[in-house]
Write a structure and sequence with these properties.
Length: 377
């Protein structure tokens, strides 16, 4: 029986798996990647397409996000992948939101050094025709955020790996067992020196005991998308409001956050109970992506709550005005999340095998940088 050979095998064709395949290929490895579905259908295509450096934990995670941004731009330059360096605006309509943003900038020199700063309502209006400036007190402008279209970006990265580095990508192929050097799949056996298991929301097929002990939970989110906006209208900077300051780790050390959380708990209890914070981005064809909510459990029911969708749209209306707000798509996304402050799960269950998971909702933002660190030079 013929056994195929690779230096490195990667399990999973989402952004985490693609990133590890890229890092291994850049090291000079012969790489094969196995994806059980015929194309990527998980969290990697069900997101905003935000490369959201500004929200990441200060320090090495923030730097990892910036490195990931660089790699996205490198791939875009070589492949034609749509990647818009739009930047972002955190819009503050309340004094406690201004206080958190000002404190964040005061304690985060790396963000200031890269151009993040507070701006006036008039300056906000110049940057964004979408942001509501009635009642706006200030905004934080950050130039580092990058917008990609996940529905197009993930297959584009896969194609880039094949054409640029000769990565052998096997869609519709499930890895059933790993016992190095043998990797057993539904298309036969392979031999590999190293394996990176980037299986996303699948905790059961490979190394289930690792996941059982990991503390990983599944996160369910609800998202929506409008139709293409009229006459080539462009969003410009990606937008968010005060609720987002309670979601991202970048703001966790801000003492002023406690007052904001208390007010939000009183004024928006449903939003807080359902993990709602609201972001707005755009796709390559002009549609607007809106969301989202967050529910955490080992097993989550499959049904969407229209009350949650209404809460998201209502809150969006407090800081943004859209030319055509009609919703044309709704969906749920699921991703693995660590709830103890860790930003990734990297475990070696046996020599030569590394499980990489648990990047949460920041896969698009962190994966390329993380993969370089995990794979090494």
């Amino acid at each position: 029986m013929t056994v195929n050979r690779a230096d490195t095998a990667v399990v999973g064709g989402g952004i985490v798996g693609l990133a590890h395949a890229l890092a291994a290929a850049r090291r000079g490895d012969r790489v094969v990647l196995f994806e059980r579905d015929d194309f990527a259908v998980g969290a990697s295509i069900r997101n905003f397409g935000m490369i959201w450096s500004i929200g990441q934990q200060r320090g090495e995670v923030y730097e990892r996000a910036l490195r990931t941004r660089e790699i996205w731009l490198e791939i875009a330059a070589k492949s034609g992948l749509w990647a818009a360096p739009t930047g972002s605006l955190h819009l503050a309509h309340h004094p406690d939101e201004v206080a958190v943003l000002e404190e964040f900038l005061a304690i985060t020199p790396p963000a200031r050094d890269r151009g993040s700063r507070m701006i006036t309502p008039a300056e906000t209006r110049d940057l964004s025709a979408t942001a509501r400036t009635d009642g706006l007190l200030a905004a934080m402008w950050s130039p580092t955020e990058l917008n990609v279209d996940p529905r197009l970006a993930i297959p584009a990265v896969a194609k880039y790996l094949v054409t640029e580095y000769g990565v052998d990508i096997r869609f519709g192929t499930t890895v059933r067992d790993i016992s190095l050097p043998t990797v057993s799949t539904t298309e036969g056996e392979w031999h590999a020196d190293r394996v990176y298991v980037c299986s996303g929301n699948d905790f059961a097929t490979l190394y289930p005991e690792v996941f059982a002990q990991s503390g990983l939970m599944r996160c369910k989110l609800q998202m929506m998308r409008t139709g293409a906006q009229p006459a080539g209208w462009q969003l410009g900077p990606m937008l968010c409001g005060g609720l987002t300051l309670l979601h991202y780790a970048a703001f966790d050390d801000c003492e002023s956050k406690a007052a904001l959380a208390a007010r939000m708990g009183e004024e928006l209890p449903f939003h807080r109970e359902n993990g709602v914070h609201v972001l707005l981005s755009q796709t390559a064809d002009g549609r607007l992506t809106i969301g989202d909510s967050h529910a955490y459990a080992k097993t989550l029911h499959p049904f969407e709550s229209e009350e949650i969708n209404e809460a998201v749209v209502d809150y969006l209306g407090t800081f943004a005005q859209l030319p055509n707000p009609a919703i044309t798509e709704r969906w749920s996304g699921y991703y693995p999340s660590l709830r103890d402050g860790r930003t990734q799960l990297v475990v070696e269950p046996e020599p030569g095998v590394t499980v990489v998971n648990g990047v949460g909702g920041a896969g698009m933002t962190l994966s390329f940088g993380l993969a370089e660190e995990v794979v090494g030079g």
